[in-house]
Amino acid sequence: MAVRNEPTNKALYARVKAAAKRKFDVYPSAYANAWLVREYKKRGGTYRKVTSGGTQKTTKTRKTKK
After folding, report:
1. H or E stretch at 53
2. Which of 1, 16, 23, 26 maximizes the CB count within 10 A of its CB?
3. Which pLDDT score is estimated for 58?
């Protein structure tokens, strides 16, 4: 299962993301995304953990006789 963080306030996140795109020449970048997270949290935004369902591929291994 993959776990990812999702913003709880979508409208605020969209406004901060638009500001990041205006502020930085290169978006997405590590600096722009770090600024986005800090600014979003500074303005009162929070994240929640979301687990994506789905099937995980498992492989069974057999012991072989030597």
Report:
1. none
2. 16
3. 55
In the chain, what are the domain boundaries?
Answer: 2-49
Burial environment of residue 50 by CB neighbours within 10 A (0 to 12, 13 to 18, 19 or more): exposed
Question: What count of other Cβ atoms lies within 10 Å of the Cβ of residue 20?
Answer: 21
Q: Are 12 and 40 in contact (CB under 8 A)?
A: yes
| C-beta neighbour count of 27 within 10 angstroms | 15
Query: For residue range 6-56, what is the model confidence (pLDDT) as tens digits?
Result: 999 999 999 999 999 999 999 999 999 999 999 999 999 999 999 886 555
Considering only CA atoms, give the Rg of the chain.
Answer: 19
